Amino acid sequence: MGVVVLVTGVARHLGARFAAEVRRRPGVDRVVGVDVQPPGLPVEEPDGPAAPYTFHQLDLRRPVLSRVLAEYQVDTVVHLSVSATGLGSTNRSAVKESNVIGTMQLLGACQKAPGVRRLVVKSTTGVYGSAPRDPAVFSERIQPKDPPGGGFAKDAAEVEGYVRGFARRRPDVAVTVLRFANILGPSADTPLGEYFSLPVLPTVLGYDPRLQFVHEDDAVAVLCRAADEPLPGTVNTGTFNVAGEGVLLLSQCARRLGRPTLPVLLPAVSWMAVLARQTRLVDVSPEQLRLLTHGRVVDTTRLRETFGYRPAFSTPEAFADFAASRGPGLLPPERLAAVTDRLSALLGPDGPAAVPDAVPNRPRRPRS
What pTM, to 2 d.p., does this model score? Predict the structure, then answer.
């Protein structure tokens, strides 16, 4: 028999894309999708031969998943439903229950299923937090000095703790935890993507954080690699940071989008974030606000050298693809570039001293 893959969170864009992609993989006999709501769009039918797909609408917080694992003899579980936002609900407690309690129920069902041989869990680099005392670059072994105290990042940290406990109880299961940087792309539906889609970007006065992104295509490719047997010379079990190479400053992101920034004091930004969430204009959570203040950069050496995957998109390339899908902003980048080039030409190579005076210099009068 081939592999039977169960995927949680298929009602979201990333889960639907992964489910469609993994069906094309040789050796996959069936893909079972699970989510609390049916997908807004049907899972894309791959071109050519593909494994059959079955969807089950169920809540992971209910102890019904065991029957699905047994019915289809699932041996690979890919858990993608840990998310910053809930489906059909903006209630923070409901989202936390779905993330944490749902994962606990899933792990309990996997522990009782002797046929499960591989578990892949989508996490986030947000587990490192964002604080002024943070190291310049986080590796997988570094513990955050100021761990997240709430929100999605804390949910992910708790989920990882339960996953480590499951790995100790079931050493026969290959467990992979993927800590994704912010996922961007033409179709990515993420809170940070919503923020960058605003016509004017509120920023914290005096801060220009470093940011990393991972393209949605790379996210799907990494998940497929983790759900399969490791390639020769690689290991795909353990914890891995997933991000495109390089970094971008928030100011660079704004210029490349052609969107003006509105620098305000931190208390005012916090108030604006609360107002935006209440009006459902954009979901700027407290942990995302800390990211947009202090930034975060992670080391991806283990992803390249141990896991054996080098992202096809760097951080600037992933952001460029996202920006191209959003259309020109109020300040198109080409206009900004033209202004910058014009200023550079006026200033000359030696700076302001090279600018000719508008009025000829007059000889100074000798002091009496």
Answer: 0.86
